[in-house]
Amino acid sequence: MIRVLLVDDQALIRAGFRALLAAEDDITVVADASDGAQGVSLARRHKPDVVLLDVQMPVMDGIEATRQIASDPELASAHVVILTNYGFDEYVFNALRAGASGFLVKDTDPADLLTAVRVAARGDALLSPAITRRLISEFVSRTPQAGPVVGLDQLTNREREVMALVAKGLTNDEIAARMVISPTTAKTHVSRAMTKLGARDRAQLVVFAYESGLVRVG
């Protein structure tokens, strides 16, 4: 059973999502919250698999809530999906940087919302690698370069190469073919790079690759 926490300051949004999710046999809504601080508290209490989290909320916004959830060792299995009215913007980028697994616009089709919850619960990045790369590179090109990424100097040359290929939108199978290694070895390199950098998933690994300058925009 996939355990979901809803965090949004609009009661109507929470009620609609709760009704949709509760109708599924493999999904249950364990709690809902109206602000980020309450959301973090409920996440620590209920240990959800997926947190559907609004970006702009009172008391604590979704970016800080994401950061607190993503950095809590007891919530390592909780995957944050950002809810937004506007699509990919600065808030979403900062939430991905803070550890979110992806994002959804609030008017997304019900079927896509259910798919997103199941994908996030498996621990996969919600966005496909190619879409993640395109969106993040586009945003980074319009913002100042961030500082050094902590842990980048711990990566082996092989891990840096794999990280760059992830940032360019390649899947593990495509990385394996490009580097002439097995898909299992490619997956291992990706996992080790994520561990060393503290990245929760591939989406955050892409953010780090662009922010560190390992991959250049364009």
UniProtKB/TrEMBL annotation:
Keywords: DNA-binding, Phosphoprotein, Transcription, Transcription regulation
SUPFAM superfamilies: C-terminal effector domain of the bipartite response regulators, CheY-like
InterPro entries: CheY-like_superfamily, NreC/VraR/RcsB-like_REC, Sig_transdc_resp-reg_C-effctor, Sig_transdc_resp-reg_receiver, Tscrpt_reg_LuxR_C, WalR-like
Record domain HTH luxR-type: where: 148-213
Domain of life according to the entry: Bacteria
The Response regulatory domain, residue ranges: 3-121
Residues bearing the modification 4-aspartylphosphate: 54
Coiled coil stretches, renumbered: none
CDD domains tied to this protein: LuxR_C_like (cd06170), REC_NarL-like (cd17535)
Name of the featured protein: Response regulator transcription factor
